[in-house]
Design a protein that fits this description.
about 300 residues, alpha/beta, 7-stranded mixed β-sheet, two-stranded antiparallel ribbon, 9 helices, about 25% strand, elongated, disordered N terminus
Length: about 300
């Protein structure tokens, strides 16, 4: 198991291959959307801005009418000539947890690489959370579990990007085991975002059942490559399972492709049934879609993101 503490020094410029600077800046203007009524389900509200007796500094923002004068940073005013207010994180607030599947099956898709898409979407949602002063933790699992301890504030965005960029793909997924390890590290987790191709229904249900037991608000970001949704194949093929190594030789015909699409529709229906059973939601993410389309069209339409 790999464990990364946010006190370690980051690389000089992490995040470039996951999020372009302009894209990251736009994402800071978006927030994560809860799908449960605030305070109505386990986990409660994710964030809490305490007036006065705060416990952990998060960020600065410009003073607005009605802010408490005692929260103004007068040293910053002396240097910059503008009024800024300190914002703090309440240690009692819930934490947002990003759980990324880095198993071998995610290492697929060519230009529409599923794993790279999962890391990019996780990075984007993490930027939204940290810019909104949510506490954030991250975990990933495939050949081994990697953990990023809870952190907060805009200044932690580079730390998150560095963690995600350091992940590699391989091995067999164990999302429930990775989630259990992450919850031991971040026991105040209230919201869970899973980034995976969700190939194994049994493992998905095990993960959802565990999340429900902890009262988590769970969103599955279902990453699929275009060629998985609409395969363009013909002739003789040898298909190999990326995780088990199982091999099957097939003769691809129009009838076989039609049968595949029907099986896929049935599989997606079973995933949605599991989500309804365990109080989660599933959002399809096409790994071939342009990042701007994913963040500013697909995810807002699905109710995952919303402009601040």
């Amino acid at each position: 198991m790999k464990f990364q503490n946010p006190s370690q020094n980051p690389d000089p410029a992490p995040g470039r291959y996951l999020l372009e600077p302009g894209l990251a800046a736009r994402l800071e203007g978006y927030r994560l959307v809860r799908y449960r009524p605030a305070g109505g389900e386990p986990g409660g509200g994710r964030r809490s801005h305490r007036k006065g007796g705060a416990v952990e500094f998060a960020d600065y923002r410009q003073y607005t009418l009605g802010d408490e004068p005692r929260r103004v940073d007068w040293k910053a005013y002396a240097r910059l000539g503008r009024l800024y207010v300190k914002e703090f994180l309440d240690e009692r607030q819930d934490c947002v947890l990003l759980l990324v599947d880095t198993s071998a099956s995610m290492d697929y898709g060519g230009e529409a690489h599923k794993g790279r898409c999962a890391l990019r979407v996780a990075a984007g949602l993490g930027v939204c959370a940290l810019a909104g002063h949510d506490r954030l933790a991250a975990a990933a699992g495939g050949s081994q579990t990697a953990l990023l301890a809870p952190l907060g504030g805009r200044g932690s965005i580079f730390r998150l990007l560095q963690f995600l960029e350091g992940l590699t793909f391989g091995g067999v997924s164990d999302l429930a085991g990775d989630l259990r390890a992450a919850l031991a590290m971040a026991p105040r987790t209230g919201s869970l975002y899973v980034f995976s191709d969700l190939l194994d229904l049994e493992k998905v249900e095990k993960t959802l059942r565990l999340a429900a037991g902890y009262g988590l608000e769970t969103t599955l970001l279902h990453i699929m490559a275009p060629q998985e949704r609409q395969p363009v194949l013909e002739g003789e093929w040898a298909l190999v399972d990326a995780e088990s190594g199982a091999r099957v030789e097939v003769s691809v015909t129009p009838a076989l492709l039609l049968a595949y699409r029907r099986r896929l529709e049935n599989f997606l229906g079973q995933l949605d049934d599991l989500c309804r059973r365990w109080g989660a939601r599933r959002v399809m993410v096409d790994s071939g879609e342009r990042p701007a389309g994913t963040f500013f069209i697909t995810l807002p339409r699905a109710g995952v993101l919303h402009p601040r």
